[in-house]
Every structure is written in structure tokens, then in C-alpha cells.
Amino acid sequence: MMAAAAADRNPACEVTLFEKNDHLGAKVIISGGGRCNVKEALKNYPRGAKFLMTAMFRFPPEKVMAWFEEHGVRLKTEKDLRVFPVSDDGKEIVSALEKDLRRKKVEILFNMAVTKIAKDSEKFKVTTKDGRTFTADAVILTTGGNAGYDFAQALGHTITPLGPSLNSLVVAEKWVETLAGVSFEKAKLRLGDYERLGAFVFTHRGVSGPSAFALSSYAAHETISEKTPLRLTIDFFPDEKFEAFQRRFLDLIQKNQQKNLANFLDIILPKSLCSVVPSLAKIDGSIKAGSLTKENRNVLAHLLKEFPMTVTGRSGGEEFVTAGGVYLSQINTNTMESKICPGLYFAGEIMDVDGFTGGFNLQASWATGALAGNSAA
Q1: Which residues contact 161 (CB under 8 A, 6 or more apart)?
Q2: Coil, helix or strand for 240?
Q3: Tell me, what DSSP letter sits at residue 81?
Q4: Which H or E run contains 146?
Q5: How far apart are CA 256 and CA 265, in angstroms?
């Protein structure tokens, strides 16, 4: 949509948008739980950050926000700096784009699945499922997914290894069911060699939320299974170094010697965790805090700074993103044009570019779409 809007800035261009669904922006509408977050930062792209620099410089978050506000979408910035429509309705974002396309007389073909793209001399032939053929001087490929990869390969490009991104993590430990719904605004999660600071939530099968999604993105190309698990650790107190936390922990014990261990832990942990932690430490939860041995105290302190779990799989995340795509070395970062097939441009997820949850994939789409559209025009 953004590529089509940008391409039509050249009045000499006739722009046609092929949409296989019966409406535009299905993926945009569900982004951010249906609210559609529209902001970014390059550090939040595990793949493709350097490649995105030109596109982001030309159409950064501030300009994206200005574009939507100029097109009638009132935006709000929340405490975590995520930006949403005031209406909390992602349909408003799609509506602004669609109105702009219709105003510019972009031809939108709904329920029009493309089955083949070929280049004959200087022209492209675009064939649709109903057997129709369209001729074009330039094609911008923004499909993502398997169909897009097939088109790119047919036109001479190579696809990187693909992997799932932005997934929840499934763990082997069965006691995690008792923690379902327990969340932390700030913790440090470490999966294998990857770590991420931020919010997460326990699920009945493992962990989810922004930090877990980010770790799954880092580890998109790792094999994770019951036979090849990865170790996950959680630091519930990431703002304190171990020695400082240990001192505070011991001080709390001294002040609450008569409380049993489970009740004592309730001072610093959600209640559901207060029975799990003693169990993992192999300490009776009914023991008085003042009766804990030095070894007990050390085990507990280490457990709270390095809480262990065993990741054996992935489950659906809140966004649908694939890690991998067309090799970036085959695309001109300044124009989004193919270096292999002149006149072919790429934007969005079809490239080996992906971001964490939080609007980053949308921002990459706005920026690369605008650059591809302008360049093609």
C-alpha cells in the first residue's frame, strides 16, 4: 500500500495494486492486538538493520507518524513509546492508506492472486489465478511468504534459510502451568547465547511476551526440540548485580526471620512463584526464613538471578513473521531495486529483514515500501 502510494507521486505512472484478499491490510489491522503500533528503532532488527538505514533515514518514524496524521489519523504515544491511533483501531491506518490510493486513482484489484511473474525483454508479465496477464515496466514485490519467495527465485534470486520468528517458547517443566498469567514488566531472559531485557509472561506451556518473542527471533535459525533443547534463564532483578541483590536478600531475611520461606518470598515475588522457588531449591517452603542455612540462602539468591527452564519448542506469537528471505546482497539498499533483475523492487518481509514485536516490522514495511515506490516511479 505504501509502495503504491509512493509510486503514484509521479503522475506519469499508472499504478496497479494486486491484492489476493477481498480487503486491504489484513496483517496491518491485527498488528498490536488490532491497534497497529507505528514506531521503530534500528537496534530492534536482528536481521537487516544496516541494510535498512537508507530507507529509515528517508522515511523515519517521525515522518511515518506525520504522514498518517496528515491523512486524518490522530495518533497517541504511550508510556513505552509505542504509537497507536487514538481510536485503538488498526482499521483506521488501513483506511487512510486506501483513501490515499483511491484519491490518486491507483487501480486496486481485489481477490486477484498472482501466480506467475516473468520478464520478457524490458517488460514484466504478471499472470493472475484467473488467467489474466498484465504488462508492467516495473514490479514491486511485497508479498512475503512462500509465494513471494517463489516469484523472487523465478526471477533469479536466492532465498536465505528460513525460520520462525516472534514465537512464544515452550518449556519441558510441567510446573510452569501453575504460573500461567504471571507477568513481569522487566526481567532479563537468556536463551543459549542470546539475551533480552524487557517484559514477559508465563504461559501454561512456557513463556511469552516481548522478551520471549525477541529471543525466539534471535534464535530463529536454531534447532529447538525435546532432543535438542536450549537452556533459558530468567533474572527477576536485572537492575541489581548479584552481590547487591544478595546483600538486600540477606537483609530482608534478617528483618523477617519468623516468616516461613513461602511467605517471606511473597515480599519480593508474585505469590504463584513462592511455592515453585523453594521446590526448585529443594528447600521446605514451611521453614522459617531465619532458619535458612548459608547454603540455602546462596541457592535461593542464585535461583532468583538465574531461574532455569528448558526450552523444547515454539508456539504461535502475536505477529506472523519469517526470519529470512531474499539475500540483501542482491538488492540495492539505496533504491530497493534488484541487482539481478532491473525493474524489480522489493519491500517488507520478503527480504531478509525482520524486527522484534512492537511495530518494528510495520515501520520496515512503511520505509522500504516508500523507497521502493519512489525508486520505481
Answers
A1: 221, 324
A2: coil
A3: S
A4: helix 145-154
A5: 10
The answer to whether the pTM exceeds 0.70 is yes
Alpha carbon separation from 256 to 27, 270, 272, 273, 300 (Å, rounded): 52, 17, 20, 18, 15
For 113, 176, 178, 265, 313, the CA distances from 276, given in Å and listed in that order, are 52, 9, 9, 11, 22
Cell numbers given for 268: 519480593
Contacts 24+ apart (CB under 8 A), 298-303: 298/246, 300/249, 301/242, 301/245, 301/246, 301/249, 302/242, 303/277
Written out in words, the top-level CATH class of the domain with range 2-163+321-376 is alpha beta
- Per-10-residue mean pLDDT for the chain, 377 residues long? 90 93 86 65 86 94 94 90 88 95 94 95 94 97 86 96 91 96 97 94 95 94 95 98 97 95 95 94 94 96 97 76 93 98 96 89 94 97
Q: Which CATH number fits domain 242-308: 2.60.120, 1.10.8, 3.90.1580, 1.10.3470?
A: 1.10.8
